[in-house]
Design brief:
The protein is an all-alpha fold. It has one domain (2-137). It has helices at 2-32, 37-72, 77-104, 110-137. It starts with a helix and ends with a helix.
């Protein structure tokens, strides 16, 4: 059945993003503050370019499979909640984290870096809750 395969792919993409976001939250973002001002802009620009390759395709696949499940089950509250979680992740990414990365790509700013680390908890918590929900849905 197609729905089962799409669900399993959605779960796979979501778990991939869950692992990635926890790594970013606990290791990667905090360490950005230790790079040093002299090389930070080069580091930030490389980070943004390279990270896009491991995040963007999976986020798009996760979004697509999640919306497909919602399309197939439009009356299921679970899939509306899942889509709401995806909306929060995407909104946080494009309205908070991307602008902070954009500012940091010009120069290191300790306040903006701290805001990046702190606001990324939005995505970390939402991806965690969504993953738990998807695993329970199994």
């Amino acid at each position: 059945m197609a729905e089962e395969w799409v669900f399993r792919l959605h779960l796979l993409f979501s778990l991939y993003m869950l692992g990635l976001i926890w790594f970013v939250q606990v290791v990667h973002y905090p360490l950005m503050g230790k790079v040093g001002r002299a090389v930070f802009v080069d580091y930030e620009n490389a980070h943004t370019r390279l990270t896009s390759w491991v995040t963007a395709p999976m986020m798009l696949l996760e979004l697509g499979t999640g919306l497909l499940m919602l399309y197939w089950y439009p009356r299921a509250l679970f899939w509306w909640g899942n889509a709401g979680g995806l909306a929060v992740v995407w909104a946080s990414t494009f309205f908070i984290q991307v602008p902070l990365h954009s500012a940091l790509s010009q120069q290191f700013d300790a306040g903006k870096h701290l805001r990046l680390v702190r606001t990324n908890w939005i995505r970390t918590v939402v991806w965690t809750l969504r993953a738990i929900g998807l695993l329970l849905y199994l």
